[in-house]
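User: I'm curious whether this sequence folds into something compact or stays loose and floppy. Could you predict its structure so I can see for myself?
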Amino acid sequence: METVYVITHPEATHHVENLVGGWYDSELTERGHRQAEQIARHLREVIPADVTPQLVTSDLRRTSQTADAIAQVFGIEPEVNADLREKSYGAAEGKPQAWLDERFVFPPAYPATPDERMDHDEGIPGAETKLQWVQRTYRAVAQIEETAASHRIIVTHGGTANWVIAAWQRIPVEGCGYVGWRLAQGSITTLSDANPFHNRTLLSLGVIP
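Assistant: Here's the prediction. I'll summarize afterward.
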């Protein structure tokens, strides 16, 4: 049996400065630090006291700071996995959001082929395609699952959390062309296979503690 908590980092400086995130290495605001501490307290309440969870985080500062708050509560060291980063927006990263909005090319709508959706990069130089983004997230989840654990905490970003959920639920990569959930900053999504059928169940989505 396994329970997974997928955490999206709370408020970061690029949010309040209206800058493009992606791989831009922003950090938590004061409010974000308070939110991270609240997430940590909530996880301590819901995870059994005799359990030491596996804690894995993206390497960017805003996620690492979130993971540090959780690690302090549980007395553990987080594992770092750069494949849990947000989508790379290439040349747009760290620029004003308006710069990206002026140049952003939306993916084709239904009935586009899976390749048309997955090979899309929003028209930004140096940006990842959706396929590259999904594939590396799936690689991260596969690496995480190499460690046996009854409870896992994965700290990532609002966009990448989609592919963490999809990977854990065994949705094929090619099935992610139209997959998407709206996950708030500083939210917790809970996944579990603790049922007689071992179905990988989405118990709650994007809950703010």
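Summary: The mean pLDDT is 96. The helical segments are 13-16, 30-46, 61-74, 97-103, 114-118, 130-144, 160-168.
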